[in-house]
Design goal:
alpha/beta; globular; Rossmann fold; 6-stranded parallel sheet; 226 residues; 2 domains; DNA polymerase, domain 1
Length: 226
């Protein structure tokens, strides 16, 4: 196939996961012995390792000491999520499944998310969206979101016969838009998170919509753009 479409997860395909949010506090306490909530920073669009680094630096922990145990911290986040997510309802946002249905078998569909891979895949399973995604770039691959887009593109070429140059990144934050631009992709912003259509457009989005419910227009852009 000659088109690759990469979706962000949180606030793009699904609403926030409280369990994922709380998992950070659990890991911070277990690994670093501190009590802190990630809401002290604006983490929208950050990778999970980046969120941890920024929160812990914000409360005064030395960056070098944080880095030494960052892998343990990520493991603790995954462990907590796996143990507790089964009790959480994680529905897809309105329009997500319908858009994925419309794109299925016409393009390669993937994920581009700051979530650690096990968490991302479990969220998709619980939202009933797993079957659509065949490739991805995850927070467990790299702390830098732009590199995640590049990773997903490489995986699509290596493993899924992606033979084109048209890549679309769909997300709800300026960080999603920036990562797509820096990786050479076109970007579609959806105002289903904390940012308005105007803010997403100002951040460089090629196209902006209120939500994924604008299925017809989004599909038209992806399938007809050349």
């Amino acid at each position: 196939m000659d088109k690759l479409v990469l979706f962000d997860i949180d606030k793009t395909l699904i609403d926030r996961s409280i369990c994922h949010h709380v998992a950070f506090s659990y890991a911070f306490k277990k690994i670093y012995g501190v009590t802190v909530d990630i809401s002290i920073i604006n983490y929208a669009g950050m990778t999970d390792p980046q969120i941890a680094m920024e929160v812990l630096k914000c409360i005064g922990l030395d960056e070098s000491l944080v880095k030494v145990r960052i892998d343990e911290c990520m493991d603790a986040i995954v462990d907590y999520f796996k143990e507790n997510a089964e009790r959480e309802n994680i529905p897809a946002l309105d329009g997500a499944k319908e858009l994925l249905d419309a794109l299925e078998n016409k393009v390669i569909i993937g994920l581009i998310t700051g979530n650690l891979e096990p968490i991302a895949l479990e969220k998709m399973r619980k939202a009933g969206l797993s079957r659509y995604f065949h490739v991805g770039g995850f927070g467990s691959d790299n702390i830098n979101r732009t590199e995640l887009v590049k990773t997903a593109i490489k995986r699509a070429k290596d493993n899924h016969n992606f033979n084109g140059s048209e890549v679309f990144v769909i997300g709800d934050t300026p960080r999603d838009i920036k990562a797509g631009y820096e990786a050479g992709a076109r970007s579609i912003g959806v105002a289903t998170g904390r940012y308005s259509k105007e803010e997403l457009k100002d951040s460089g989005a090629d196209f902006v919509f209120d939500s994924l419910k604008d299925k017809k227009k989004i599909v038209e852009i992806i399938l007809q753009t050349s």
